[in-house]
């Protein structure tokens, strides 16, 4: 029999849900500059051009490439990257770029464009590390044939948010250095040196997270969007997500299920995200008597700082929410 709590959250959720790269030259994510520099020689005196599909890979390409490459980001800051639609100029640029760094399954438009225009120059980070299986939830607004593997509308059998595990991302850094060294032998030593430094910084970050999350009173994180599987896997946390897809409407049944878990495990914080509406998470938090806090999946450039500082802010947020010493 459905509890009064489950019935209340079903009713409230139902009411809410029905009511509610190597391209051309760049400045930050500069699409205009990208259109002006063309070709793999670029405007930088023969520098390769790297096109990065989303911010974490843009950050990594800038760290590994240094001044020897031109890095172009396809996704604008502050914009949800999963729904990216490429302009004709961006698609044309993929035919000229030296390398396209992406994670298959995050941005369907990029996946398709790489397959059609840059298949021999794609650098898919998901092929370089051990991936985690995507979660599945019944009744998540996908219809009868919908499955969790349809991450953001594109079929993948894994969770693509691998950059949230710095140890895996360190592997990507090393492999990117090797890829650039092979493509541009004259500057190979610099690529390898910077890749080693980036990997070392990521390894240090991994150590900070492992130490900071080792002895927490709680180990369950309830999130609006199941983007944190790699972080949870690496640091022995339990992710309980309301939705696999931030664009999908979680069913009242799923919300009631998560509420029951949150109450049983005495969860005190429901995590929202920077680019996703917090309304559903706020309804859940009110139902279970919890507060909300922002946990950043770093899918877009942070308003302040960079990937490393955003991950450290996530650590601070988690330590407070999970009562870590």
From TrEMBL:
Example of a GO MF term: metal ion binding
Annotated region (Disordered), positions in chain: 135-154
Entry-linked InterPro entries: Bact_metal-bind_prot9, Lipoprotein_PsaA-like, ZnuA-like
Superkingdom of this protein's organism: Bacteria
Record carries keyword Signal: yes
Keyword Transport: yes
Pfam families found in the cross-reference section: ZnuA
Membrane spanning residue stretches: none
Gene3D superfamilies attached to this UniProt entry: Nitrogenase molybdenum iron protein domain
Signal peptide: 1-27
Keyword vocabulary terms for this entry: Signal, Transport
GO biological processes: cell adhesion; metal ion transport
Family assignment from sequence similarity: Belongs to the bacterial solute-binding protein 9 family.
Xref: PANTHER family: HIGH-AFFINITY ZINC UPTAKE SYSTEM PROTEIN ZNUA, HIGH-AFFINITY ZINC UPTAKE SYSTEM PROTEIN ZNUA-RELATED
Protein name: ABC transporter substrate-binding protein
Organism: Planomonospora sphaerica
């Amino acid at each position: 029999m459905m509890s009064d709590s489950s019935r209340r959250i079903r009713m409230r959720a139902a009411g809410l849900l029905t009511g509610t790269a190597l391209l051309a030259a760049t400045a930050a994510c500069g699409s205009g500059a990208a259109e002006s520099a063309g070709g793999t020689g670029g405007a930088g005196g023969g520098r390769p051009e790297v096109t990065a599909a989303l911010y974490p890979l843009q950050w990594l390409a800038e760290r590994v490439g240094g001044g020897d490459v031109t890095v172009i980001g396809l996704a604008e800051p502050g914009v949800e990257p999963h729904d990216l639609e490429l302009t004709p100029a961006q698609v044309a640029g993929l035919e000229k770029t030296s390398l396209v760094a992406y994670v298959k399954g995050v941005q369907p438009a990029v996946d398709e464009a790489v397959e059609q225009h840059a298949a021999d120059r794609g650098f898919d980070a998901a092929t370089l590390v051990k991936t985690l299986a995507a979660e599945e939830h019944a009744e998540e607004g996908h219809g009868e044939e919908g499955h969790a593997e349809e991450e953001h509308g594109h079929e993948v059998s894994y969770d693509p948010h691998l950059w949230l595990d710095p140890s895996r991302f360190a592997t990507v850094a090393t492999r990117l250095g090797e890829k650039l060294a092979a493509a541009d032998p004259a500057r190979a030593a610099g690529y390898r040196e910077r890749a080693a430094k980036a990997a070392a910084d990521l390894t240090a970050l991994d150590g900070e997270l492992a130490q900071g999350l080792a002895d927490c009173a709680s180990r369950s994180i309830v999130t609006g969007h199941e983007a944190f599987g790699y972080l949870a896997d690496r640091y022995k946390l339990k992710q309980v997500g309301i939705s696999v897809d931030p664009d999908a409407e979680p069913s009242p049944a799923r919300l009631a299920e998560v509420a029951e878990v949150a109450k049983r495990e005495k969860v005190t914080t429901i995590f929202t995200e920077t680019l996703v509406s917090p309304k559903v998470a706020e309804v859940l938090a009110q139902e279970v008597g919890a507060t909300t806090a922002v946990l950043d999946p770093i899918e877009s450039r942070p308003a302040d700082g960079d990937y490393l500082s955003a991950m450290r802010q996530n650590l601070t947020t988690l330590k407070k929410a999970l009562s870590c010493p």
